[in-house]
């Protein structure tokens, strides 16, 4: 009788343990961070057409960003024509499922349509004309999704990578000087006063570029331009950034009184622009990536009072913008989920806290 009771208790405990483990595995990435910050992902409308992929998104993420369809050229290819379909589908999916949406991006030197900068004769337009076109574009796009998109990457990558150059020598800069940046933020604020407005850039931890970005943001903030936050893109590698440089960047930007998000996170397994001898995901790469993701999320949690979101750039290693970039034909493995949408070792480290 005693043995039977002990066996019964053992079975109950085993079942309880299995149930607890099952419940644990049912949790998604977002659930582990629900008290810290939203965890997002960049998607395309095609992801939503596959029920398994859509379910995967809903399990692991509570914020989404349109990877391409809200950029200026895709959404506004001609002056009098918009392509709303893809952006509308993403916003509708988010609204129906209670997800946050980050808008990306309103003003960028890349993927900007040629008509924005030229007149009918093929000559560069005046500063006033370009600013008027920018204002109309921002008002049209932001107003359409007012109340549905909580944050916008307003200006993207305006700071130069060259050590002796402050702002990138884009057509925006050539025609308007640096004024286009402040105007873009003011236009976005006009269109949706409640939206959180971001300046977004890469290499934000590099000391030289970091100081230039800080200088730009301080100047804008001192002029009462409505810049509320900075997006650290987070296109990093297994060797970069260091914990020291990342912490220094977060502290410097936070000193401006603005919030911070990691907006385009991935961790490349490569540290050079060469084709590797081994084309598969190696055990060495796996270990280095696991260590880097551990450091990154340790840092994000440490600075959670400043960080209001972390967004991955693409869902899984099945498809990443880093495939074929910057080396044509090279396959990368930069995310937490493998090509079969299964968690990698780095995933388990990220949720282990």
Task: Report what the structure shows.
The chain has 353 residues and is of the alpha/beta class. Helices cover 42% and strands 15% of the residues. It is built from 12 helices and 9 strands. The chain has an 8-stranded parallel beta barrel with strand order 1-2-3-4-5-6-8-9, surrounded by 5 helices. The longest helix is centred in the N-terminal third of the chain and has 25 residues, at 2-26. The two termini are 43 Å apart.
The overall strand count is 9
Strand order of the largest sheet: 1-2-3-4-5-6-8-9
- Poorly predicted residue ranges: 1-24
Q: Sheet with the most strands?
A: 8 strands, parallel, barrel
Beta-strand percent range:
15-25%
What best-fitting shape do the alpha-carbon axes yield?
globular
Structural class: alpha/beta
The span between the termini is: 43 Å
Our count of helices gives 12
**What is the CA-based Rg, rounded?**
22 Å
Elements, N to C (H/E): HHEHEHHEHEHHEHEEHEHEH
Helix content: 40-55%
Keywords:
disordered N terminus, eight-stranded parallel beta barrel, globular, alpha/beta
Give the structure's gist in a few sentences:
42% of the residues lie in helices and 15% in strands. It is α/β, with parallel strands linked by helices. Helix 10 links the parallel strand 7 and strand 8.
Write the layout of secondary structure elements.
Layout: H1 2-26, H2 29-32, E1 39-43, H3 51-60, E2 63-66, H4 72-75, H5 85-97, E3 100-108, H6 127-144, E4 151-156, H7 171-176, H8 179-191, E5 196-201, H9 207-222, E6 229-232, E7 235-237, H10 243-254, E8 259-268, H11 283-302, E9 307-312, H12 345-350
Parallel strand pairs: 1-2, 1-9, 2-3, 3-4, 4-5, 5-6, 6-8, 7-8, 8-9
Helix pairs in contact: 6-8
